[in-house]
Amino acid sequence: MTGNRPFCVHAVLQTALFVLGSAVISRPARGADEFTFSGLLISFAAAVLLYALMLPLSKAAVLRSEGENTAVSGAALCLLFFGAALFSLWCAADAFIAFTRFASEIMLPDSPAVFSVLLFLSAVIFFTLKRQEHILKFFFTAFWGVLFVALLFFITMLSSFDPENIFIYDFFNVKGFAAASKPYLINPVLPLALLPVYNSAVLKKTRFKAGFAGIILGYFLLFLTVSGSVLLFGAPLAGELDYPYSFAVSTVSVGRLFSRLDGLSYYLYFICALCRVSVCLFTLKFCLKKANAAAKGFTRKSKPRG
Amino acid sequence: MKKALVFALCLLFCPLLLCGCNMQERFTAGTNKYLIAALGFDEVGDEVRLYMEAVIVNSDDSAAEKKTELLYGGGKTLKSALGECMRAAAEPLELSHTAAAVIGESISAKRYEEICDYLYNERQITLSILLLSSPSARELLSCETVSSAAVGYDLTGLIEQYDGYTGTKSKCRLYEIENSRRKAVNVAAMPSVKAQNGKFSLDGAYVFKDGERVLKLDPSQVFLYALAVDLQTRGRANFDGKEIEIKRAKSDISYKNGKFYLTVKADTENAAIKKEVQKGIEALFLLSKSADVDLFGIGNRLYKRDKTFFEKISRDYSQFYQNACLEVRVQ
Question: Could you tell me if the ipTM is greater than 0.90?
Answer without folding.
Answer: no
